[in-house]
Amino acid sequence: MIVARDLAYAYPRGGFGLRVPALDLAAGEKLAVVGPSGSGKSTLLDLIAGIRRPDGGALLVDGVDVPALSEAGRRAFRAARIGFVFQTFELIDYLSARDNILYPYMISPALRLDAAVRARAGALAQAAGVADKLDRRPGDLSQGERQRVAICRALVAKPRLILADEATGNLDPANKGVVLDLLFAQAADAGAAVLAVTHDHDLLPRFDRVVDFAGFADRSAA
Ligand code: ADP
Ligand code: MG
């Protein structure tokens, strides 16, 4: 699902550079990424999702040379194959929680919104415990509710790869378990792989593998 070699990225402004000699993720595998704050974990997810383009190295995601795609191509690839739970949620303020969950269907011509999709969105919201909040806008939800809406949005289009950036970070212990169960059940159902950045060390035994990101940052890069 992911093959990365000698991946390098430096922010145009600012002294941070990321260097990843090798990172692999098999289809259906569940990988946790841990590491200190500022070590480049979110940057790595941006590279994998094609939000940022690496300066060097090789990156295949689901067999596709993502950095070689145009910006529009990367956007379409992301919408069709990747479910991304952003660390900062990135919900759309003026849309209801329901429409936020359905958002991939509004922006991707490859996805068709029909009654079955609406039912699926409702079922995901139910499983995530936000079914009674679907008419509210993000501003009228708690942090934990926003996070769960963002997770439903990431899962609704049955992505091949789920990228989750501290997706359990704002939740109480009971809801952490619920959300991880939901992520893993959806992944198993769709045969999807999961790459999750997490600080919750008690959740690590539930992953197939753990990569420690300490050491990947190259502070001399920029
Ligand atoms: P992590 O997710 O591991 O906490 P990040 O990938 O968010 O780390 O950030 C890695 C480093 O890159 C940090 O030092 C951060 O300050 C820096 N950084 C993040 N975004 C930008 C940006 N847009 N411009 C410049 N530097 C950035
Ligand atoms: Mg981060």
UniProtKB/TrEMBL annotation:
Say if the entry is tagged with keyword Cytoplasm. Answer: no
InterPro entries to which the protein is assigned, alphabetical: AAA+_ATPase, ABC_transporter-like_ATP-bd, ABC_transporter-like_CS, ABC_transpr_LolD-like, P-loop_NTPase
Quote a single Gene Ontology cellular component term.
plasma membrane
Task: Give the PROSITE patterns listed for this entry.
Answer: ABC_TRANSPORTER_1, ABC_TRANSPORTER_2
Q: Which SMART domains match?
A: AAA (SM00382)
Does the keyword Coiled coil belong to this entry?
no
Give the record's keywords alphabetically: ATP-binding, Nucleotide-binding
Q: A GO molecular function for this record?
A: ATP binding
Domain ABC transporter per the UniProt entry, residue ranges: 2-221
Q: Could you name the domain of life of the organism this protein comes from?
A: Bacteria
Q: Which Pfam families match?
A: ABC_tran
Cited PANTHER family: IMPORT ATP-BINDING PROTEIN
**Descriptive protein name:** Putative ABC transport system ATP-binding protein
> Which organism is this entry from?
Rubrimonas cliftonensis
